[in-house]
Every structure is written in structure tokens, then in C-alpha cells.
User: Fold these one by one.
Assistant:
Number 1:
Amino acid sequence: MDFAYTQQEEQFRLELRTWLEENLPEGWLDGTFNMPEEQAAYGQFLRDWQRKLSEGNWAAIAWPKKHGGRDATLMEEIIYHQEMVRVQAPPAINYVGLHMVGPTLMQIGSPEQQEKYIAKILSGEEVWCQGYSEPNAGSDLAAVQTTAVKDGDKWIINGQKIWTSFAHFADRCFLVARTSKGEKKHHGITCFLLDMNQPGVEVRPIIQMDGEHDFNEVYLNDAVAYEADVIGNVDDGWRVTIALLMHERTGIGAQVFSLEQQFDALVELARSVTTDDEALIEQREVRKRLLDLYIKSRGSLLNYYRNLTKQLKVGHPGVEGSMDKLFVSEVTKELFSEAISLQGHQAITWKQDAIYGDSYWQKNYLYSFGQTIGGGTSEIQKNTIAERILGLPKDIGK
Amino acid sequence: MDFAYTQQEEQFRLELRTWLEENLPEGWLDGTFNMPEEQAAYGQFLRDWQRKLSEGNWAAIAWPKKHGGRDATLMEEIIYHQEMVRVQAPPAINYVGLHMVGPTLMQIGSPEQQEKYIAKILSGEEVWCQGYSEPNAGSDLAAVQTTAVKDGDKWIINGQKIWTSFAHFADRCFLVARTSKGEKKHHGITCFLLDMNQPGVEVRPIIQMDGEHDFNEVYLNDAVAYEADVIGNVDDGWRVTIALLMHERTGIGAQVFSLEQQFDALVELARSVTTDDEALIEQREVRKRLLDLYIKSRGSLLNYYRNLTKQLKVGHPGVEGSMDKLFVSEVTKELFSEAISLQGHQAITWKQDAIYGDSYWQKNYLYSFGQTIGGGTSEIQKNTIAERILGLPKDIGK
Amino acid sequence: MDFSLSQEQEMFRQYVRKYLQDVETTKIARDYIHGDINTVQQSLAGLNELGCTQLNIPEQYDGMGLGKLDLVPIFEELGAALVPGLHLETLALAAPMIEQFGSDEQKQTYLPSIASAEATFTIAWLEPGRSYKKQGIQLQAQHDAGSLLLQGVKTLVPDVELATHIIVPVRVNEQIALVIVESDTAGLTVSPLQSFDETRKLSQLQFDNVRVSTNQVIGQLDEGWAILNRGLLSFNAGLSSWLVGATERIVQMANEYAQIREQFGNPIGRFQAIKHRIVDMKLDLETARSLSYYANWTLETDAPDKVEAIVSARIFATQTFIRAAADNIQIHGGIGFTEEIDCHLYVKRSRFFENYLGDIDTYYDLAIDALGWTDVAAPTALPITP
Amino acid sequence: MDFSLSQEQEMFRQYVRKYLQDVETTKIARDYIHGDINTVQQSLAGLNELGCTQLNIPEQYDGMGLGKLDLVPIFEELGAALVPGLHLETLALAAPMIEQFGSDEQKQTYLPSIASAEATFTIAWLEPGRSYKKQGIQLQAQHDAGSLLLQGVKTLVPDVELATHIIVPVRVNEQIALVIVESDTAGLTVSPLQSFDETRKLSQLQFDNVRVSTNQVIGQLDEGWAILNRGLLSFNAGLSSWLVGATERIVQMANEYAQIREQFGNPIGRFQAIKHRIVDMKLDLETARSLSYYANWTLETDAPDKVEAIVSARIFATQTFIRAAADNIQIHGGIGFTEEIDCHLYVKRSRFFENYLGDIDTYYDLAIDALGWTDVAAPTALPITP
């Protein structure tokens, strides 16, 4: 058992930290920088930030060097997440491209597809989104109803996608559609690399309960894709979607490190918020509730490290990722709910009138409801753990 | 809304209370009476107590007067339970006979069966048990595997029953057996009034985790019943079993009133137990935990009163009984678990060395685990509530 | 023994429910989010026509002279539809305090206008950085020529926009007095605050030598704290009914959605993770309802256990509402996370009420005191020691 | 980064598991319930042969000189099989205290006999009506001709029957000293107490001028409290491993039963009420394990966060064990409620450990102090304010 980082790893951390300090926007680190609020400007800001990252070879460190990555080790990826969380770096607008589409293209894309897309993913020139979920296929991916019908050299695509992050910025979509009726539900699915900039694609925003706009509905009305846009084989998209989803798991580290930071912020809140000149933390019960959260957020981090160790040994992520995802999202939800409770009636303020500027606590509290739903609900994670780790019987309907 | 008792009801309470004070064993009310420990003596003590109750017409007040009851109203039954709990009266050894078999006989028994059994049930001369559960049919009554095969004028019964309360005292058993294979699982079941005193019936004790012996396994090896012992029609026992189970529900009141009393005892515990000369109740957190339990035990009582009101209006018990059962048993479990926690390390004593004599808290804590299992597990109650009150879909396997 | 609402009370509930369904239930709340005060005022007028505002006002003041229990179904229905406005503050806090402790003049002035829905009350209690405890009230009132001059700041005051009057606990010579201030009084500056629960507006109120006649004091100058606490019993009994109504709607939403929404070829309500969770919500709901009915009954009959009964109802109903509102989102999945579906409105309101007019924590202590548990010497009398 | 036990440690676990399976796991515990001390003593000898008792004793005292982490798999396996005996008290409490704070003579006397399993230690701490706090220690020790005379009563002392020695915190001139008393010393009267957890025997100990040489004091006469608290860190790290092992067995029991037992034509593990509950147990188990591994690592490396790490592990592992043991009964249904199935043994032990050698509540305060939260002035340094 050994929690130390190698000298090489520490060197990596230092290099990244220095780069960030030199390249983050002016005022970012001292909190005086204001993000553009208007959507187009915000999108441009994020694209610029990604371009800058890619210029420093910091956009996709796990990618091979020949594609502009760093062939980073898993530990370097972890350190990368830690440092990005530490400075609360701007979100990666091309998250889907960098962490899902790019690696999938390298794995099963044709040489032409690789040539055409990979460089632009890295630079942020082309932002990607992911067309998986549908209104009637949320937890149940195999129930996809969007159809793609062959018409000469074209595929005509009709249907509706939902929960499509970044679609309002995206140039291309990694789209799953049904191309034939298979015996089993997950047969007859095909994956397309769809051009978003065409008349048959309409993007409508979904406004969340926290007032933000992260997701969209994407309506496909005779949208067109070409032979060259099929990735993998026709009707064999299930395998491709699994490959893509496997790449998604690296996001858990960022959540775990964020939780650590959020817990520290909560302690700071309990120290700084006073009523009648008594800080919250002076109440023994507040301290006990904090300790419960301390234990759980530490538990989340240590669980992650333990699974990471296994991953380092066996060389690929395991199903334990479901446990990490379930735990960190549930604890995050609990933490922000407690944060609201602890503030007493003062918690009911919003934006500039909230205790922390821009209602950090309230926004994250509302946002946390999405964390036990998105990326597979907690109930789905539990089924996965039950069936794949514990060997319990399969659920109904599967 | 009106919580008052009528003058008649108060009169009833007074009459019963007076009778109890005059007829309970010497030393019972001041806690100096010691129950016989040896099983046969204990059984005899309980039979004697029931005989005494029946002589005062207090054994089965809900029964018609012509059968030795009092034609009691539902409210009088409630008061009866309250008073019995108040004095912690000895348990009714013929609970199954008085509250289940007796009423069922009156409802669907033949005149001969009524003549033969009812009076002896009331006097405690014949103690009954109930042969429903089997090792593979716990929550799933329709899965009964014990068989009864016709052989001339006899039925030859083979199989195994489990969780049979009072079987070690019982003279007769209300037994469910399969007499033919129906299309549906609950077809082809027949109910028998079985003589327990025969070579084909073997009773083996089940020792519980609290060291007590309330339940038994009953092995049936060519046990014999006769035509006259069939209640209802052959192969139509499902209807009979439902009738019997409907009568069981009145036990919830006793649990609710016991919970009230147990909560009061817990407050008394928190007042009287000290460490380093500080009473537990002096700790604010202890008081808060008590308040949570106060709210829930009050809630349990008030829920019961609300459902009772409905029952008084519609004239029969409703499916809400499942909610009462679920809630009171879960709260009881929580209460005793808290009682153990509150006592700190002192809680690990037992019997005469425990804080309350005869380890009242420890025994009840252990016993409480059975309350969310027996009479339908909490999971089964939840399915009933979901399907019959909320209209949610039926579960798998049903 | 009859632990249920009367037929008349249930019938009145149906009228209110029908009316609110006619105006599309949460539409009023959603309009208010977008700054439309009009719809809210119209709904108040509509409720007034039904008689909601007259119910518990004595007949001599143009009311119906009915009891606390008659308000129960109304508050339940208002909660179910999240109707914005100062119904609880006006009908369950201001009206009972004025009726019970107000001068004849105050009764004649305010009770008929409450009954006619012309007067609506909010309460300005909290001060910046201070608590709901007695010591938290520091806004100063100085005697000046038969008047009081109010100087200080109140914050998180709800819905001043909708109020004709404000109840203000103030400090006079180290005592707490309760003053009724007209919301357009000179010297009073209202600064809007952003609200987490968009269906309730918030403001900070600056009092700059606001002059209030001593006739506007409810009861005596040193009775304010006691009167407020008496008023809060009534308020919390009403609030617990409101919370029950809101929770009932949540359970209904979750239940309906679980029967319609299919995943893996089954309605999600067939999966026990969803199915049993809705049962848990239902069980909590019915327990909250039992506690709240009883709370209102103790209020109506002035029963000796009214404090613990009412506080228990408020605590449990609040916790139930918070939990159910959160679970409702999880049951709805992604769609429950959107602004479009009502789920989030209930979540936000659940946190609004969590510590409204008193921290949950303080309410624990209040019930504990009422139960005599802080009196260490007093033993509980048990009929028989177990 | 390598957050796992080493191959050697995992291999050692397999030896211990194999040995305990050979003696039918809980059979040792069940024999002890029926008063059979022999089986327990044989199992101790067996474990000694495997090397369990030598692991963390320095080589110069006939041990293997391995670290705290090497004890982890052993305690996990002992917990899984509920092996009765004073393993934790001897190996994780007495041995580290003697090694770290004992005199050379004490080390030479005790450490080799612990390694050879000839010496076993219990601890007599609690006194009737008193707490685990410092003020709870009132048993008096008087100086008398180079000895101490002990006068007083200790209670709830575990397994004296199995102990050759007893560690006794005593009061000497208002200071706390830790004394090693041989269990057959004159003046010591042992009165058995009935135990809720039948796999641990309890006794009350009457000390009537029990004479103990001052050589038997661990450290200085005024260092007892500090040494005990240092020893408790080691004990609680070990205990958390024990609890993890016990919980793992529970999860295994529940999981296996849920796959075999059928109701309504399906294994009960197909119903999410059961299925997801086992997942919850599993998740808690793995979290407890992560916390306990880390706790033992901080102990081994004397890391600055060792107090909060170890206390966190103990608190979480205890709560997990209590919850899992209770849920295991519910999952087993009726059969889980019987004496015959092992479920209840785990429930009882879970309550035994709940407040053993320190109330859960006191441990909360200990971790809170260690985290600096009682120091109101000290702000937490955040890299960047959110």
C-alpha cells in the first residue's frame, strides 16, 4: 500500500500547474474573471480555451502523441483531473469529442474518418455531441426508435434525441439509429457521424430546474448521412456504442475530486456563516453532520483510489466504476442538501443575494439532482452492481 | 373530528379495568408475580388465565353473546386492547382460536363443527394453531405443498408446516393442504380442522434469536383427517384462508398501543439511566432522538385511529391495515434499536444483569426483528399498498 | 371516536379543488414566477368568492365564524397547487393573533378586510445576520409623541408586493412588541432580493424612522413575543396542512408517472425500487396527514398537548415534503430535472418552508420543552414499569 | 499509487480463511456460547501456528516484525468467522502499547508470550454507572511499599476466562495509570455477568487491595490516559478491519440466500427490494473497507491525519455492520429470525462493538477535534474560493 506519487508524476503535476497559471484567463485564479453570459460568446470562450489547451498539448493527454496527445498514463490522467478541479478550470466544450468520439474513432474509425475528424476534435474546431438517449429510451438504450433508411448513397434519418449535451454548440453528432429490426432489441442499430449543420437537424434547448441550459432535444426530420459517416458496420452499432460508453467512465475522477473540494467549501461555510454572531460550526450538531459527510466524501475518494489501483493492475476499467458513480453522486446530493439545511432560512436566496456569490450552494444543490439521473440513474447502477458484481438475477424486462 | 369516548364506552373500560384488577394473578400489577418458566406449567398458567377470562365473558368480546361473547363494538374492542396492554396482561394462549378460527367457524363452519369446537375454544379447553406457512411458501401462500389425499373416508396428509405459533400447546390445527392441482396456484387448496394429538403429527420447536420458543415446525407424516374436518368445500380452501386472514388484522391495535407504552418506557429509561451522574435525557441529542420517535409513535397511533374511523363508517376493515402494520412494525424496530444505542455499552448485558430486569430492552429489540417479517414481511405489505391502494402494477411472479 | 374531516369540510375541499383546476393549478404559480401579480390577485379574489378568506373570521366581523379544522382542506388544496400568496400569513397568523389579542379597533379595522380579501399580511421578522430567536429581533422602536419610530432592517420578507400590511416584531425598551405596519408607509424602503423559490418573492425592508401609531401594536408593548409564539401555533398547524396537500400532489404525480412511463418493456412502477419508494412517500404522507389533522384539532379544542402536537406535525410534514419532493425528481428521471415539469417547484418550496418562521432545530426544542423532557427532575409516570 | 493489500498479505488471508473453514467457521463461536472454552483455546493455538500472533511483534521478541497492514487480513477473517477470543485486545491494543511504551522488562516478559500465544490480554475499563471518559476511571491505586494497591470495581470486562492478563486503567493521585494485572492475582474476584452477545463472556471484577508491582505500570504513572488513547488508535484500526470482515460475510450470506430462496416463482434476489438492498450493503462494505485500509495505512506510516482516518473507519464500519447485520435478517425472512442460522450472532456482535472501548459519540468528538473544527478561529484554507 502506497499513496505516494512518483517523481515523474509530481513533475507532470508541476508542469500542468505552471501551464495553467500562465494560461488561464486573466483574473481566473483570484475569482475576478467573469464568464461571458451570452450563449454565443460563452461558446466562443470555451472554444478558445480548448484551442489554447490543445496548443499546449493539454487538451487530450490520454491520446497518442501522434494525434496530439501525450500518451498519458492513468495516473497522469488522475493528476490532470485533480489539477483541473483545483483551479475549477472552464468546462471542456468538446468533452464528447475528446473523451468519447476521439478515442472511439481511433479504435474503430476508418483511416478516412480518423483523418477527417481527429485533429479538429482536438483543436475544438469541431465540437461534438452524442445522440443516444431518446424520450422512450432513457435508461434502456436498446429501445432506440430513431430510424435511418438507406436511399441510394444516403441514409435518411428521422426521430428525436433528448438530453443531448453541447448540441447547441455542436458541429457533429455521434448518432445511434435503428437500421433494421433485429431479433433482439440491440440488433440492427447503426452509429453515424452526423453533420449537425443541415436543415434536417433542429436543436431545441431544455431548460433545467437550476435555470441552466446544458441539454437539448434534437429533432431529426429527413436528416442526411452518407456511407462515409457510418462508423463500424451497419447494424452492428451496439458494439460501437458500448465502446464509446466505456470511454465515458473517466469522468468519475473529476466528480470525486470535486466532492473533496465541495466538502472543504462546506466546512468553510460552516465557519464563516454566523447567526447572532455564532458561527454554524460552533454547534456540535453541525460538526457531527459535517463529520458524517467527511467520512462519506473520504470514502468516495478512497473507493475511487482502490478501484484505480485495480485498473492500474489489470489495464482496463472495471464494472466497479458503477459503484464509484453511484456513491459519489449520492453523496454529492446529500452534501448539497445538507449545505442548504445548514444555512437555515438564509438558504432561500438566489444569485447575487445568496451567501456565496452566484448562489454556488443553491445552484449545485439543484444541479445535484441530475447527477443521480444522468449517465445512468442510481437504480440502473444498482442493477449493474447487483448483476455484474454480486451475480444476482437479471431484472425483469431484460 | 372527535376523540372523545362515549359514556357507554367509558363504562365498558371501567368494568374491564375493575375486572382485571380483581382477577389478575396476585402480584401481577406490582410486577412481583413471576411467570412459570417450565413450558408445561407456563401453558397451564395461560390456559387457566383464559378460562378465567371466559368465565367473566372477557375472552372473546367480539363474539356474539350466544357464543359467550359480548357482541362488542369495534370501539369496545379497541378499549379492550388498550386495557390489556396497559396491564401487560398474559398473552392469549388460544389467540388463533379466539381471533381467527372461532370467527371463521361462525362464518363458514358447519353446525356440527360450530357445536363441536366453539365452546372449547372460548374456555381454552382446546388450544388451536394455524398451519399455513411452509418452508417454500412463506410470503407466497398459494405455493403450499402439503398434500391431502383422499383414502376412503379419510384424508391422508403429508408435508411440513413452519412458523406455527402455539403448536407446542395446541390440540387442533387449522391446516391448509393441497388436494388437487388447479390451473392457478391457489386453486385446489382445502382447509382442515386437524387433530394434533395423533401419531402422524410431530411438533419440533424453533428457537428464536431471542432464545424464546414461540414457533414450531409441524411435520405431517400420514396424518389423518376425516370428512367432518373439512371446513368450507374441498378444493375451495383459498376463500377460507382469506376469510381467516381477514380476522387476523385486529392485532394491529395491540401493537400500536404497545408502541405507545414502549415509547413512554424509553423516556423513563432516558431519565433514569445515568453515566457519571448525568441522566441520558440531559443530552440534547438524546432528547432530539426521543422526539423523532415520539412523532413516529404518535403518527402510528393517529394513523390507526384514522383508519379505525373509516372502518367504523364502512363497517369492515380495509387494506389500510397494511399501512398500519408496516408502519407500526418498522417504528417498533427503530424504537428498540435506539433503546439499545442510547444505553451505550451497558446495553450488552442480558437477563438479570440488564438495566431493566429480565432484559426488557434487549429481548424486545431482538423480538422486533420478527415483527417486520411475521404476518407478512414489510416488502409484502409494500406490494399490497402499492397494488391495492396506489394502483401500481402487479409484481413479477403474480 | 371520529378522526376525520366532516362531510361539509370535504365538500368545501372539492369546491376549492375544482376552482384551482379550472385555473390550471400551477399556472398561477408559474405566472407569478414571470412577475405576473395579476393572476395571483385574481386567484385571491376567486378564493374569496368561494369563502376561503371568511371561514375562520368571526361572524360579527363579516366572517363565517368557523373553526381551525375548516381551514384544513383549504390549505391542503392551496399547497397541492402551490398557489402563491400570503394565505397562511394572513389567515393562519395575522387573523388569529388580531382576533385573540388585538384591540376592538384593530379587530374592526382588519378582520372584515381580511374576510373581504382587501387586507393581506406578510411578516417581517428576520434581520440580516440574525436568527429567529428572541435575541435576533433588534429593530428599534422609540416612543415619540404617541407613536413609535421604527429604525432598522428586516430581510427575507416574503411577497411584500402582495401585502397591504406587514407584521413587524420590534424591540421597545428591551421588550418585543408586535406592530402592524401598512406596506406603503413613509420611510419604508423595499429592496427586492432574488429568491431560490421563484414562486415566493423576497425583499429586504429598510425602516427609516417609520412612524407607527401605538394603536397599531397588537396587545401590550411587552407582549409581542408571547403573542407571536401563540400565533405561530396557529400558523404551523395551517402550514402542516399546506405541506400535506403539496405532498399529496407529489405522490399523485409520482404514482401517475410510474404507471405511464415504460422502460425495459414495463411501466417503471413495476420495479420495486420505484414502486416501494412511492409506498414510502405514501406512508409518510398519510402519517403527516394524521399528525396535521390532530394538530389542528388540538388547536381548535385548545388541548393541553397542542404545542407538541403542532410542532410534531410541522417537523414531520416538513421533512416528508422535502424527501418526497426530492424523490419525485428521481422517479421522473431526466424529465423531472427540467424546468418544464412541476417537480422542481415543489423541491424549491420544500426548502423555502424548511426553516420558515423558525428553524427546525428550534422547533425540536420547543416540543421537547412542552413534553417536559428538559425538566430532569420530573419522572414520567408509567402505569406499570415494564 | 497502490491502494491494495500486497500479494503476501492476500496469501496470508487465504491461509487463515482455509484454517477457519476447516474448523467450520462459526462452530468455534457456537461452542463458546455453550461454555466450551477448549475449542477457543485450540483455535488460538491454530492461529498461533499459522503465525497470526507473531506478525506484529518485533523480531527481537520472537515475532515476525511485520506492520499494522499485515494484521488487516487476519482481523478481517477473524471477524468473518466471529472467532471468539481476545485477539483484538491482545494484538491490537496490549502488544502495541507494550511495544511502544513498555519498559524493557515488560517487553521481554510479554511480547514473546504474546507471540507464542501464551499470554492473552483483556481490558477492565468501565466502572458501574460510569463512562469511558477520563472522569469515569475512579478505581483507586494507592502506593504501598513499591507496589500499588488497587481498590474498586470494574465491569463489563470481556472474556476474563480467556485472559492471562488484564489491562486496568486506575487512578493514582488524580492521574490515570495503566496497570497490567495477572488474571489470577490475589484479591481479584471475578463475577460473571450475562452477556447479550453470547460469543463474548462478561464479568464484573472486584479489586480488594489487589497488589501490583509498580513494574507493572505501562509508561509513567501519569501517562496512562495518553498511552491508552494511543493504544486505542491501534485497536480501532484493527477493529475496523474486523468489522469489515464480519460485514463481508454478511453480504455473502445475504447474496447467496437471495439467489437460492424462491418466492412467487423467482429467486428473491430478483426483486429490487432485496436486490438493491444487497447492493447498498455491498457499497457500504466496500466504503468501510476503503476507510479501514486507509486507517491502517495511516497507523503504519504515522500519517498526520491518522486520528480522523482511524476514527472515521471505526464509526463508519460500526454503523455499516449494525445496518447490514439487521438487513441480513430481513432478507432471510423467518429463517433469519431463528437461533439456528448465524444471522443473529452478527447482530448481537454488532451491538457489542457499537460502543465498545468508547462511545460512538465520543469518537465523533475525537475526530472533530483532530480536524480542527472546534478551533473556531482557524479558517480552512481553500485553494480557490468557489
Number 2:
Amino acid sequence: KQKAQFQAQIHEFNSFCWDKCIEKPGAKLDSRTETCITNCVERFIDTSLLITNRFAQMLEKGGGMH
Amino acid sequence: KQKAQFQAQIHEFNSFCWDKCIEKPGAKLDSRTETCITNCVERFIDTSLLITNRFAQMLEKGGGMH
Amino acid sequence: KQKAQFQAQIHEFNSFCWDKCIEKPGAKLDSRTETCITNCVERFIDTSLLITNRFAQMLEKGGGMH
Amino acid sequence: AQELLTKMTEKCFKKCINKPGTSLDSSEQKCIAMCMDRYMDSWNLVSRTYSSRIQ
Amino acid sequence: AQELLTKMTEKCFKKCINKPGTSLDSSEQKCIAMCMDRYMDSWNLVSRTYSSRIQ
Amino acid sequence: AQELLTKMTEKCFKKCINKPGTSLDSSEQKCIAMCMDRYMDSWNLVSRTYSSRIQ
């Protein structure tokens, strides 16, 4: 089950970062595109952590959703 | 179960109307953006009702999908 | 179950090819739009077959995903 | 038919309602009705095309 | 809240991160925090609008 | 692998088939094959990046 969740995450990241980084598929992934994909995945995870932590803090303070 | 359905609807409306109404998130939701979101949700519901009623009429008349 | 799968496919094709072929909905589907939709569905199926077959060949050769 | 109604609502809202106002005006209503008819035409055409392909 | 967190991550990444770099810089972090607040404001407004409509 | 095949079909159709014609011509076929290879390269890269992050 954990493996399925891991794979689902990769599909989601790959779909998202493909749209962000690939203009026209070429004969190989050039280094600029590779860097874009790696950074895209890393920053996506950072964004997700930032949002999740901030949301948890809001809940503790009793704010947020009404 | 009804509450889950209600929440799922709100997620769908919010995602859709966010894309329609928010250009760049600012320091607060200004009144123009608020009006846009409110109208977007209201008109989305109107559109859904119009389509559902018209579809029901078509089915009664025996037309529509073949 | 097979019928549900068939219907799900049609929804997916129709959604995809609608975005590809319909600029502004008119008083009827003109012949150019009809051709576009038919070709879109046919080429989508071709693309899917091409990719599926090529993927199967790769798996046989033991390549592909690492 | 739930999936069809959901998709038509989304697609036709996008095609017909540029700036959502305080009500659906008559030109928006006409556009939605027309869009709905074309969406079902397209659905029928896709269905025929796919059926003849998989036979 | 999982659905909300997933959607916010996607929407706010799209709004705030134009070219993903080697880290989230401070302006990106500020943008994400603001975007998150506005997304929840919008969620609350949508919720109120929908509730009053279906009553 | 179903999810991967579905996504590749959609993404590579979008990248390679601008106006769908009466058959897949050879340049479209080449583009699809290349797109498919790049999509899998990208998948492998994403998988490595994510794995090293969560360890």
C-alpha cells in the first residue's frame, strides 16, 4: 500500500513538472531540463511542507477554517 | 456522507473559481475579487441547474443520447 | 462493468477532443468540427496503441523503468 | 449521466461565461443551451467512432 | 483537510514559483504564505455562498 | 503501469499532434516515440529525486 502511494506521488510530480519543464521533447533530456525537473520536484516538496506546517500551526492557534 | 459530498463540492467550486478570479494573491481578498468569487459560485450553480433541468426534459421527450 | 469502462473512455475522449476541436459552440456541429473530432478520437487510439506496444517491447527487452 | 452533467457544466461555463455577473443573462443562457446540444452531439459522434473502432 | 492541502500546494506553487531554483527564496516563501491565506479566505467565502444557496 | 501509459498517451498526443489528420504520419510517430522516451527519463529522474529526499 505504501508502495502504491509512493508511485502515485511520482506520477503526480512527473505530470506536474513535465508541464513546467518540457517545451518540446528532444533526443535526450538535456542538463537544463534535468535541473528544472529536479528543482521542480524539490521545490514542490518544500512548498507542500511549508503549507502543511503552517496549517498545523494555524489549527493549534484555533484559527483558519470557519 | 452528505457532509463529505458538501465538502467535495466546495473544493471543486473553490478550485474552479480561484482559477477564474485570482490573478495574483494579494494582502487580502479585495472586494472585486470577493464579488467575482461569489458570482462565480452562484453562476456555476445556475449553469448546473439549467443543464440538469434541460437534460431531464430531453429524456422525457425521449431525445438526447443515442 | 465493461459497459462502465466503455462509457468512462467516451467521457475521457469527448472531454479531450472537445478542448482540441471546439472553439465556440455553434448552431450545429459543422463538418470541419465533425472531422476534427473523429480524427482526434482515432489518432488518440492510435497513439495509445503505439505507446502500449512500444512499452511492451521495452519490457521484453528488459529496459525502460529503473 | 452524472459524469456527463458534471462535464457539460464545467465545459459550458468555461465557453459561455466570461465574467460571472449577478445573474445568467439571456445570451449566456442561450449559449449554455447551444453548448449543451453540441456537447451531446460530440458525445454521440465520439461514441460511434469508438464503437466502430473496437469492433 | 488532505484535499485542501494538496490543492493549496498545487495552486500556490503555480502562482508563486515561476522558475524553480535550488531553494525556496524568501520572496517565494512570503508569496506561498499569502497565497495560502487567500486560498482559505476563498474557501470560506465559497462555503458561505454555497451554504446560503442550498438552504 | 496503466497510469503511466494513460498519462504518456495524453501528454504525448498534446505535444506531438497539433491537428489530428486521417492517420499518424511518420513525423508524428517519431515525435511520440521520442516523447515517450523522455517521459520515462523524466519519471526515473523524479523517482530518484523523490527517493533521495524521503530517505
